[in-house]
Amino acid sequence: MTEFDSIKAQTVAFLCGSIFREHIYKNRDDAQMEAFFAQAEESAPDSGKFYGAWFRAFVAVARNDGKKSCDNFLGALEALSSIKDASALSDDLPAFLQQGFAFFMYIGDEESARKFWTEGAMRGFFAKPDTESFFRKLFAKFNAKEQFWVQFQPDMFVDEVKARTKAKSDYKKSAETDDALLKSINDADEAAFIAAAAGCDFSKRLINGVSPLYYAIQRKGTIKSGAGKFTDDIVQIQAESMVAKLDLDKLPEEMRNKQILEIFHQMRSTYEKSGLGKIMFGAFFGEDDELPQKSDALAGIIKRLVELTPDVDSFSKDTGNRTATNALLLAAEIGDEETVRLLVEKGADVDKPLGFAKFGMRYKDGTSISTDIPNSAVYRMISFSQFGVLRQYLERFPAKAKRAMTAKTAKCDITPLVYFILSTLYASKDEESYGRNKKLVDEFLPIFTGAGAVINENTAFGSAEKLLGL
């Protein structure tokens, strides 16, 4: 009996995959799909009515059939009440309830959406509505357009082109704002920025919790990195958020690692494979052919913001792990040479560390050495391998850079040159990368010494001279 139940569970899992991942309905007619739905209902007699209605709802959404979508989602919800043992559905129920809630919120049917949330709360998947105001607050802050496309990615639709166009339009509407200053930066409209900035006190003004200068630098960096990096970041953030919500610590290590990998795979499928990440990027930042012009316009806005901001070091953002970041550190991290130059010329503090990070090396004999790394401009450039901005900084501002070149302490027993050698040459993974990194170190050695680095100054890891075998 147990073996038979296992076969039924595997069959249902296969049917779910065929609908939700392989989208088999795209090349099958109505009669074939009805036969498929019937097979689903027969494979799991106790829960077949639920699966049949859910599959029909999903396919109806993919075919843009609103009435069938509504009827079948509600039918599947009703079918749950007649299932004797719903524990077998534990892996599928959260996905169903999230889909149903997002769908009804998207079409503006809050009454039906409330039914899905209430069911999810009763089964322990969603927060319990403790007061009547719970739903008012939930509905007010819920971004129905964004969440709909997360649950129903454009590639699942029979008419993918139409779905992608609609998704982009929805995300653009989600990004709309009445804040004129924010809108001018988002639109990379320098003329509109000048008008919106008139009378602003940039020592106090914030945009989405950060200074306008920080926000503009961040936006320019995202545009420079492109849709691929944006999608990777979304996948990482969403996957880590989901892992944090799950109680995985009680699982054996192998099962925990497998679960985490599955979550990352799911997020990569949601945002990368489906193309949703690129659609979001296009809606928020612009299409590929628009990006160079937007980047240039943002450079002009950043230049004005540097001029208008009384103290460019006054705002800092906590990043966790004992560190924070500000306009200069962010510009250094993303390799924005022009902005780093403007900030240093304005008087940004290049030496003050916003926290410290641990750095260590483990050697072949099993010994290890570690020290703190100052979270300051030059170390930030090295940490993020932004060698273009590092070169500019050392060559253009040697007097400012010099102070950090020999400023090691007992807490931070390292120098920028030693850190540069260790994090490039000593971090080489193979002979080919070692050869590239050796050329890089040889190229930068005179640039470092020109900015005041001393090659025979000893550190916890030895001197640069010793590390290079000079």
From TrEMBL:
Ribonucleoprotein among keywords: no
SUPFAM superfamilies: Ankyrin repeat
The entry's keywords: ANK repeat
ANK repeats: 323-351
Domain of life: Bacteria
Keyword Magnesium: no
Protein name: Uncharacterized protein
Species: Treponema saccharophilum DSM 2985
